[in-house]
Design goal:
The protein is of the alpha+beta class. The chain has helices spanning about 15-25, 50, 60-65, 80-95, 120-135, 145-155, 170-175, 185-195, 200-205, 210-215, 220-230, 260-280, 310-325, 345-360, and strands spanning about 5-10, 30-35, 45, 70-75, 100-105, 105-110, 140-145, 160-165, 245-255, 280-290, 295-310, 330-340, 390, 395-405, 405-410, 420-425, 430-435. The strands form 4 sheets. It has a 5-stranded mixed beta sheet with strand order 5-6-1-7-8. A 5-stranded antiparallel beta sheet has the order 16-15-14-13-17, with no helix packed on it.
Length: about 450
Amino acid sequence: MRSTPTILHLDMDAFFAAVEQASKPSLRGKPVVVGGLGPRGVVATASYEARVHGVHSAMAMAHARRLCPNAAYLVPRFGLYRKVSDTVMGLLGELSPLVEPLSLDEAFVDLDAGGVEEPPLLVAQRLRADIKAATGLTASVGLAASKLLAKIASERAKPDGVVLVEPGTERALLDPLPVRTLWGVGPATAEHLRRAGITTVAEVAHAGESELVRLLGKAHGASLYAMAAGLDDRPVVADREMKSVSVEDTFDVDLTDRARVRTEVAGLADRCVQRLRGAGRSGRTVVIKVRRYDFSTLTRSETLRAPTDDPAVVRETAARLIEAVDTTGGVRLLGVGVAGLADFTQEDLFAQTAQEAEEAEQVLPAGEAAPELVPEPVVARRWTPGQDVRHSEFGAGWVQGSGVGRVTVRFEEPGSVPGRVRTFAVEDPELSPAEPLPLVS
């Protein structure tokens, strides 16, 4: 471990929701929930005002609406989130060549590698001020001598703060924390430890390495004991190549109901896509993992024609894969993953193909008549909550809601006062989709 707190962990505060509040002045200080708005949608991010009501990421959207019915429920705008993330990561890159992004809104920085001579606390305060000036958003920062402690410190700094872990104070920070705080401790491991009377980090350290190895196996037990003792020598790795994104759950009681298995797989698929989108990626191959009652483990996969980050596509593919697996004896663990990662989606490919076709307009030979064009059926325009629009008379705004042939728009821009609300017919020719405006002029 280092002797100085020169590993910095930055975490943007309620990132997706904060971007929406910054771009929509009428939502500032109000509960905002971003995620899938369909009947099986999942919360991606909730603002702190919504978290007061118990709403949190990975929660079913239907449950969130029951807990906080008056929140603004918006579809994600990942293109804008990626642009803001690029700005933040650029500021981190000015501090050090060793920046390890974990997702669009989270990264480690090795200040030693950047030759920063200022005290780490001053560096963190200046960084937060620069992020605020460039994006209008707040960030929380943790500083410590290891990645584990820096991440814990940034969580304690939330929202909009800085926590520095001085060398020699690591145990005082770690001891009272629940075991789930440590990396590698999921629900199943936490429950296994709880049955052994271990619920806090202090109790993990007190149990000793040999007891943890007996409970969890050599690799996991030894790693957990080292973390509980505050020992973490993992370096900050720049340009880490992400090969796949996955989530899995282990069940205390084997699942034997086929309908329950399908439901769990659908939920895992939604959580997997949330992580995929959080990393700003898409993927071509959907993978399921099944550990059966006899501990036999198998995987099944299907490769799509193009990368996707569509939760419906991942959910349907995972559902097809699980149908081919015999689970009648019982299932101990289920997992869903996406591999073959890319930084574009199938929708991007469709847009590119359409553009190329338009640019490569064919010229008919002389005397040859153009084929008769068959008009396509008219499809009603679809407006989604949070979508950027522009009206020829009223300017820029965003969709508050739509239905029964009408769409309601609030006209306001980042930095303006809360705007007025107007309602139009969904086919109003003066209303059109628009690109997001910059958060800071």
